[in-house]
Each structure stands twice: as C-alpha cells, then as structure tokens.
Design a protein that fits this description.
Elements (H helix, E strand, L loop, with lengths): L14 H11 L5 E5 L8 H8 L17 E6 L9 E6 L4 E6 L11 E6 L9 H10 L1 E2 L2 E2 L5 E7 L11 H4 L3 E4 L5 H10 L4 H9 L31 H11 L2 H4 L1 H12 L1 H11 L8 H6 L10 H14 L3 H11 L5 H11 L5 H5 L2 H9 L6
Parallel strand pairs: 1-8, 1-9, 2-5, 5-8
Antiparallel strand pairs: 3-4, 6-7
Helix pairs in contact: 1-2, 5-6, 6-12, 7-9, 9-10, 12-14
Amino acid sequence: MSKSMTISTVPSVSIDECARLIELTGENITYVIQSSPGQGKTSILKLLAKRNGDKWRKPGDNFPTDKYQYVYIDGGTLRENDLSMYMPDRETKTIEQYVSSLIDFSDPRPKVIMIDEILKLPKLLKPLVTRLILERYVGDRRLPDGSRVFGTSNYVSDGVNDTIEAHVGNRIGLVNMRGPTVKEWVAWAGENNISALTRAWVSLNDSAFASYKTSDVSSNPMVFNPRSTNVSFVSPRSLEKNDSVVKLWEVLGFDVSLAAMCGIVGQAAAESMANFFKMNSDLVRPDDIFANPENIRLPEKAAALFMTMFNLVDAITTNDEMTSAMTFIKRAAAKELQSIFVSMVYAPKLHKLAKNNALVSQFVKDNPELLV
C-alpha cells in the first residue's frame, strides 16, 4: 500500500441505514450524508418518503394525502433569493421578509428538506442555509414541528470542492455512507429494470465496487480515485446510465457501444463488459431450463452461467418455474452463485413465489450464513 494513502477507519453505513437514522433522529439533528460520487445519496429523500408511506418520489410531486411535504434543494445551483428575500411593504413602510414558495408555509404539514451538495455552497451563500440546518428557520419563519432537514455531499477528501467550517461541523452530524455491496446493488437493479447483462457483469466484477476510503485502489482503473484524472468510472449511478447502452448493444453495434460505455463507466470497465457480452452463444434459454432442469447442459464458463441465471430470474412467473429454476441452479457447484439466485428471487417482485416454494425455503433453512 502507498505510504501516502490513508484508509478510513470511521464506520460507514448503508443508504437504507442513513434514511432510518434521519427518520428516527432527524427532527433534532441535521445530518450531512457523505460518500464518494455516484453512490446514490440523492435517493435518500425518496427512501424517506417510502418509509413514511407517502407517494412523493421526485421534485415537483405534491400529494395532499402525504404526511410530509418533501423539498429538494440543489445546493450547487442555489442563489441568494431562492429561499427568501426582502420586499418593501408600502402600507407599513417597512421591509418584510418573504419566503420562497419552494418551502410552502401555507401548507401546515411538517417538511422533509434535503439540501443536495450542501458542502459545495459558495461561501457567500452558506449563511442562507445555516439557520435552516441549525435552527429550522427560513428567515424568521420556523418550520412546522416534526420537520427534518438534512444534506448530502461528497467527502472533502474526494477533491471536488466540498468544504465545511469547524463551527458548523460541530453543530451537525457528519455521517459516512458506504456504497452498496454487489448483492445489494444487484437486488436493487432487479427491481429497477436494469438488464440481466449488466447485473451479471456486476456479479462477476466485485472489484468495480471498491472504494478508496476502505482499500487501496491505485491499481484498480474501474473505480473513483481522487488521485486519478479519470472522470469516467464505475459507480451505481454510472452503471444505471450505462445500462441504456447495454440494452441496445446489438442495435448500436460493437464500436458505437464501446465508445459510449468508455465515456460513461470508463475504458477499463467498458472493455471488460464488451468481452463479457460476446458470450451469448454459450447461454441456455429459460424455456429450455423450465422444460428439463435436471438434464439441460450447464454453461461451462462462469460468465455464461451467471448470465443464464439472471435471464432465468427475469423469466420466472409460476411456482413450477421457480422449482425448475432452483433445481437447475442447485446443479452449479458454487454455493455463492446459488445464494445470489435465492437473494434475487426473495426480492419483492418474486418474494411471494419464493417464500412458498419448497426448494427455495429449504435452501434458506440450510444456508442462513450465505444470505446475510
């Protein structure tokens, strides 16, 4: 390991744990959630809405039946008059402070306010949000009881212009958010229309999820490294964007697809994906597996076996198909691959089928340590 490299020993928590922390203690503490670029911090506001049983999912949504009003503030584009401004009152001949409609005080519901890229605010604008994050005031208007305010940011060590003064840092909670594990991301991807090709590649390339905060990435060209000049790298965000190209791989052609992916996830990952995608001839069709799970050939290459498994998960619609799929997967020697399959079918989309399937339930009972 390089002598100049410092590995963080401060605990990091998952995105779901960050949302739970804000939900349970955020009324009294303003948290700033830190992570490297592209790890999904912006999704915390949506996760909070889901945890609260509300319908809000994106800026611009407004559902009167929601328990909270959700407010997204882009700290990177915030300007002086975006939260409040002073206007003359001709009748009283005084100056009154008017609060922006972004934070709608005519709505009595408590607010959940997220300030994205909060540590990138220009120094001139930081006083605008200081009272909001420390005292729950916008100008001279106090937020309704039960409101929560939190921010997101990159690590200061990422070298992307995030800074914080000590007197502010001492009044808030700085929390390190880790990126998802491969299993966590694959489970999320299966519920969010990410292609089987991308999910299979990720499952075979866990080094693409390494973090410079916890390991030496000096020889890993796929990931974000603040000492590198690469601006294209693998992250949960870039993988999701890259999947638009992956889904049209055969339509776009090899050269166009490779060029696009190099600019989204970086050259090292793009070339690895391109080679991986070429193995379609070794795949086994789900319908053939459903028809003859005990005798149909197992793909010889690990990559083809993973790809076959992901296609299989996407095709299951009945309990009989679940049984056939599990019968086929149990023939694979690697327990790790079997556990990935079971984790995926236990996701919401197939959870009911998996829970009531005898073969899947028996695997869960026999291998609890693999499903943590």
